């Protein structure tokens, strides 16, 4: 069955449960990226405000061998699960090489797998992503692959042993929100690993929508980092994720075409 929360809903148990990835439990269901912040100090404060426990870092942007790198030094390793990502890799081989370098330098076996050959929309390459995932899983990595909202690919990745699937809501950094809803619903319904909606979430309401649909978590970067007040926006996303999750567990009713009165239409006014 699906990850903890979805299983709970299917059996009718309405209770909160932690997010479990790679054998670890996390209270927060908001993952945060570290790009585009005005400074490492602003980034650190925004991470704290977000309540996130998993933080992704682009391997091409930091000096992974240097413990004094400004971005890495601002991330408390005891507080956050560091999730190196292969952003910028255009082939599966490049992504695998980046992941291996990161593990050799840090000992971290977690990797957010990104393979994006398209320079304009930064859409992930499904074939190269699957090939790289198979290699990295076989080498013992905890693999969190960024993918198009493709239910067939999501199952193939799950079957090869990835820890999650991370389908996009819309192109990276576009702030367009959930443009792939129909496909996301299928992925969420079928997945036995956590579904983390990644990319395109520009507003807290987008994150709440994903969580209300039953996503296990969301990942946000640009919307927080480029806000006029990143700390306030990080707080807003934190609250939106919590609200969306709570609404999902509450069992929302489906929409209907005709009006349904919330109070009886017969009674003393007509008697």
Automatic annotation (TrEMBL):
A Pfam family assignment: ThiG
Thiazole synthase ThiG domain sequence ranges: 21-264
Ranges annotated as spanning the membrane: none
UniProt entry keywords in alphabetical sequence: Cytoplasm, Schiff base, Thiamine biosynthesis, Transferase
SUPFAM superfamilies according to UniProt: ThiG-like
InterPro entries named among the record's database cross-references: Aldolase_TIM, Thiazole_synthase_ThiG, ThiG
Location, primary (coarse class): cytoplasm
E.C. code: 2.8.1.10
Catalytic residues identified in the record: 112 (schiff-base intermediate with dxp)
Class of this enzyme: transferase
Subunit field text: Homotetramer. Forms heterodimers with either ThiH or ThiS.
Family to which this protein belongs: Belongs to the ThiG family.
Primary role: Catalyzes the rearrangement of 1-deoxy-D-xylulose 5-phosphate (DXP) to produce the thiazole phosphate moiety of thiamine. Sulfur is provided by the thiocarboxylate moiety of the carrier protein ThiS. In vitro, sulfur can be provided by H(2)S.
PANTHER family reported in the protein's UniProt record: THIAZOLE SYNTHASE (PTHR34266:SF2)
Protein's recorded name: Thiazole synthase
Organism from which the protein derives: Anaerobaca lacustris
Gene that produces this protein: thiG
